[in-house]
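Late entry, written up from scratch paper. The run itself happened at the end of the previous shift, but nothing got recorded in the book at the time, so transcribing now.
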Amino acid sequence: MRVVSVVGARPNFVKLAPVAEALAQHQSVEHVIVHTGQHYDAFMSESFFAELALPQPSHNLGVGAGSHALQTAAVLERFEPLCRTLQPDWVLVYGDVNSTLAAALTAAKLDIPVAHVEAGLRSRDRTMPEEHNRVLTDHLSTLLFTPSPDAGDNLRREGIPDEAIAFVGNVMIDSLVNILPRAHALGAERTLGLDKGRYVLVTLHRPSNVDDPSTLRELCAALVELQRERPVVFAVHPRTRARLDECGLRALLGDVRLLEPQPYTTMIGLTASAGLVITDSGGVQEETTYLGIPCLTVRQNTERPITVTHGTNRLVAPERDAILEAARSHAVSPGPRSIERWDGRAAERLVELLLDAGRR
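Output as recorded:
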């Protein structure tokens, strides 16, 4: 049985790692990893393969940066001949990035079964490019692996049959469980001179937050005010750093500590030891929920509502006063939250179901 995994961006690698490890336990499976190159710099790509003990990709499509249309088209163009050569039994796609949709569409048009890892998530916000990627990928897929019960409900409402839906749990949590002892031992917060539970960790990168100068100014003003109360550490995505420079806002941040993008282990350690996390990342909402760390997600909606209803996450508008009010009222750790099948074994369940499907 030949399984081709297609990944292209940092969150994909975290989801791939436990699946690759579980597939490696089966000698009857040949697992081929294809990296589209959507994230192509060392911090956003190569370092993750080393940290997560992932085998190096067998193929790199070298797509690189570009608009949504250019990235999607490049993956379509470059993945199709590879599929014809490899003739996989399954193509596994992960998450909701442009590479996900393009690989799923390529495989579906070649009549190759597609399995979607992290299927069924919905923000119901069609202004988000990722929402289109999620919906279209799910409707191209033969097998849909969901991380939470609400994801399955979303799929059923859209007419996808029960037999195509498999609730396996959250593979991102598998990676978190695996890396957490190393993250604690690393002591990233101690290296930065921070006291556990006493600092705010920030990650912001979505265009809706960082591309508009007035919105970005509001966010910076909130961080500066929070810095007067406790240390604020801002791991700055390359996109965000560029916007800060373009808008002349870096000086406004004053004593807020700016970090380069951090390796996965370091970020998990900083997250686990923070008193509060402010983000717009989907994965961080899940990680903070599992770890029991208060999280403010600077968005109007989330495709991971279980992190709000059952977890430690709270949505907040991208406005200075809204962020400050939420930070001050949501700054006490509610403790770790137990969510069904977020237990470190999702990939094992996923692979067993994939093998069963392949035998039919």
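The domain at 2-169+342-359 is CATH 3.40.50.2000 (Rossmann fold).
(Scratch paper discarded after transcription.)
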